[in-house]
Each structure stands twice: as C-alpha cells, then as structure tokens.
From TrEMBL:
Protein name: PepSY domain-containing protein
Pfam families attached to this UniProt entry: PepSY (PF03413), PepSY_TM (PF03929)
InterPro entries membership: PepSY, PepSY-ass_TM
Top-level taxonomic group: Bacteria
Membrane-spanning segments: 12-34, 138-159, 187-207, 331-352
Amino acid sequence: MTARRLVVKLHLYTGLFVGLLLAVTGLSGSVLVFREELEALAHQHLLVSDGSGERVAVADVVAAVQRAYPADKPFAIRVPRAPQETYLVKLNNAHDRFVYVDPYDGSILGTHRQRETVLGWLALLHTELLAGEAGETVVGVGGLLLLGLGATGVVLWWPRNGKLSQGFKMQWSAHWKRLNFDLHRATGIYAVLFLSITAATGAAFVFNASAIDLVDALTASAPRPPAPRLPPDRPGAPAPTLDALLQAADRALPLPTTWVSLPQTASAPLVVRKKRPDEPHPNGRNFVFLDPRSGAVLQLERDLLAPRGTRVFNTLYPLHVGAIAGTPTRILQAAVGLAPLVLMVTGLAMWANRRRRKRPPR
C-alpha cells in the first residue's frame, strides 16, 4: 500500500467513524455562538427587570432562593452587568437548576433546569452529548480526531501538479459527482484552519489538566498556582456577609464582577470572578479568592500578570466561541460550525458512489 493510499484510508474511515458526532457538535456550536442573544429573545421575562432604585443585598438574593428551594445548594451567582439585568443563581452545580431573581425587590422571576430549555439542552448536547462525563470524553476524542482529519485532508487536497489555485475552485457546470467532490475539497481547505482551532480548543477543555501542562511546557511557563485552601479558623469574630465579601473583592481588584462561586466545602474559598472592559473572554479571567470566615484576600489572579502559559490558555475559550474580535468573528465561527455537516454529507456521497462502482454486476 502506498503512503497516499494509507492517508486515503485513514481519512475515509476516520470520517465515517466520527462524521456524525462532528456534524452534531458543529451545528449545535453554530447556534450556541449566539446563545446570549437567543436567550434574551426566548426568556426576556427572566433576564430583564422592570424595577428601579436601590438593589437588594446579594445575601438577600441567595436567602430568597434558599427559602424557595431548601433541598438545593447555591453553587454560583451571575451578577447583573447592566441596570436591568437580573441575578442568576445556579443550584447544586453548573448545569442543574437555574433561578432568576429581580435585583430590585428580590422576587424570584422563574426557574428551570438546564436541559429543560432548548438552548440549555443544546449546550449539554454540544459539550457532553447529554451523557455526562462519558459523553464529554467522547466529544474531546472527537476533537482530536478532527485534527487528524484536517491533517490528512490537507495532504489529499494538495494538487499533485503544484497548482494550488486548482484546489480552491469549483467546477459548477460539471457532473454532480465532480461537483460534490469539489464541494468537499473546497469546504475542507477553506475551513481547515478554523476547524483545527475549534477542535484543539474544544479538546483542551475536555482534557483540561493535560492541556494546561502542554501549554505550560510549550511556553516554558511556571505551573499556575493552585487554588488556595483556608487557613486555620480563628473563632470569635463574626463571619462577614456575602455583600461585605464582595466589597472586599472590589477593593482588592476594582473591576466589574461577573460571577461569584460559593464555597461547596468547609475548606474552600469564595471566588469572585471579574472582567476587564477590553478583555475578550466573555466572563473575564481575573479572580479574587477570599476566606468567607474573615473576608481576608487569600489570592489574586490577574489575567495580564499571569504566567505566559496561563495567558495563552485564557485565549482558548474566546477563540472557541469566536469572541476574539466581536460580531465578525462570531459570525465566522457560526459559519465554520456548518462545515462538518457539509463535509460529512459530501464525504458519504463520495464513499457510497465508490462502493457502487466496486459492486459486481448481478
């Protein structure tokens, strides 16, 4: 078997094996690029308050949610970033029950579990195939296989006569089989760079620890510091309120707060997430770790002062969702998400046609 024939086989059977998975994650990803705007249309009554005046204390928001759902545990709080935006309190984990609270009177506007909404269901399909950690691993492996498909695809695309321009052209007047081949080849070469970035970043989220180690090694960076643990308790002084903790975080790092991660164990800190105005990450990559018992700042993480490897890793999510340069790159990313479906359909047509040619006459 020649080297080219081996590459053909690898490309073909990898595509047949993983094509449907890539089409599903690509299509769902194209929709999720505009998740924020679509949620605003679908759930405006949950996301927008018509109140005004002074906002209620954040502690009162959490207390109202706990009274309404005593069997659930507050996990994280999305802080309003605009005057009429509501609080979102996540219960139990990042993907379970979402509760929306009016920031001006503390009333609960509504609730749902993530998989109960179309966009929430799509997000779980995109990230874990609705199958938890096992599905997440499958998605990550699919991303790695997509990198292999891209590499073998470029090898097969490369014109043997050296005329690269031929590889970008479509013969619109040709027979449908030739047109299908040209569409597969052109879609692949135009999308390969963007699909490779999407695949690599997506796989990095799944295999997070290994990806962090790899980026640190490639950038010759020191490992990022672990999240701090609480020091020994000093009983006597009353614990500060949640609002006092947020004020301490603002003093330590005066940037807008986006999320608050509440301690889930007795030894865990409270984590306040913040975002610079010009930061490409939608939620920011600046963190304040606080001792919830005393309000002491345990650790600060600033994106601009982070080790080189951490700064590189912080760009992966904005790259994955097309947030690097605003709306133009988001539109581009949504278009790229359609490419796996086109490649799957045209690839299947090519494979079926070849099998039909090889079938002996009856």
